[in-house]
Amino acid sequence: MKTKVWLALLALYIVWGSTYLGIKVAIETIPPFLHAGIRFLISGIILVVWQRAAGQQMPTRKQWISTAIIGTLLLLGGNGLVAWAEQFIPSGVAALIIGSMPMFLVITEALRPNGLKPNWQAIVGLLVGFAGIFILVGPAEISGSASKLNPFGVAALLFACLFWSIGSVYSKSADLPKSSLMTTGAQMLMGSIGLFIVSLVTGELSNWDPAGVSMRSIYGLLYLIFVGSLIGFASFGWLLQNAPISLVATYAYVNPIVAVLLGSWLAAEPLEPHIWLATAIIIGSVIFINMTKPKAAH
């Protein structure tokens, strides 16, 4: 069993860490929201059909509404904004900013009625973590970076963290199917609807030439569908049932490092000293926050 757990964990580390580069490649010739809509529509259909064939019940009407809300927050507000931001931001930097999402979870949970309030250690961790983000994205005079990050791309990534944290907190009390994979598939299907709508509303398709889509982008999209979504979520779902949650949660620390290294090796993204410093600070603060025990509100 230990061998299977570590193989699944290794798959999760590499697969989810590599999706940031996969997005970067896919959106080279496919509009970002459209690519995400296609990705999650196909992945969602496969997961729902698979789970239905395995004997799982289809979501009820109320559960479809819950998965629509969560799918919109996570996949449109979260993943969709990440894809949009990666038009301007290196994939490794995007992964680092998204890696701070547990910090946003702490804040969102604290603001929720009767939510868990962070103790002083968690607050210190939050302050240190946001200092790491500032080092990563702040002015070149402070960060020491030779290049300036697009402020709109950075803002989109921070909003992606916020939407993802809101969706995650909402999902804790939402009425959802018993099967985690059926839930994921339903969220993908419902989230894809929002992604397609935004793609149309923002005019992504007006200047897009489908004939100009490169095989490189197609391979990137296929990788995201069949490896990033299906193998990644299948590994994650299996690990939740067969491994300690504290061990499974380590993917949040490893994924940004994998993304930074892959971005440097395969996409020639610069690895400046401030990126490594920010990596250490952000990941260290997230580990520290996760080690603290928040107190319940009264």
SSE arrangement:
Layout: H1 2-26, H2 32-53, H3 61-85, H4 91-98, H5 101-111, E1 116-117, H6 120-137, H7 140-143, H8 151-171, H9 180-201, H10 215-242, H11 245-248, H12 251-267, H13 273-291, E2 295-296
Antiparallel strand pairs: 1-2
Estimate the global geometry from the Cα principal axes: globular
- Residues in helices, as a percent range: over 70%
- Give the amount of beta strand, in percent: under 5%
The gyration radius over C-alpha positions equals: 19 Å
Tell me how many strands there are: 2
Order of helices and strands: HHHHHEHHHHHHHHE
Widest sheet, order of strands: 1-2
User: Low-confidence segments, ≥5 residues, pLDDT <50?
Assistant: 294-298
Q: So how many helices?
A: 13
Determine the N-to-C terminus distance.
41 Å
Query: How many domains, in number, for the residues?
Result: 1
Q: Averaged pLDDT, please?
A: 87
Structural class, from helix and strand content?
mainly alpha
Main β-sheet, in a few words?
A: 2 strands, antiparallel
Question: What does this 3D model show about the protein?
Answer:
- This protein has one domain (2-296).
- The chain is 75% helix and 1% strand.
- It has 13 helices and two strands, in the order αααααβααααααααβ.
- Helix 3 crosses helix 9 (180-201).
- The longest helix has 28 residues, at 215-242.
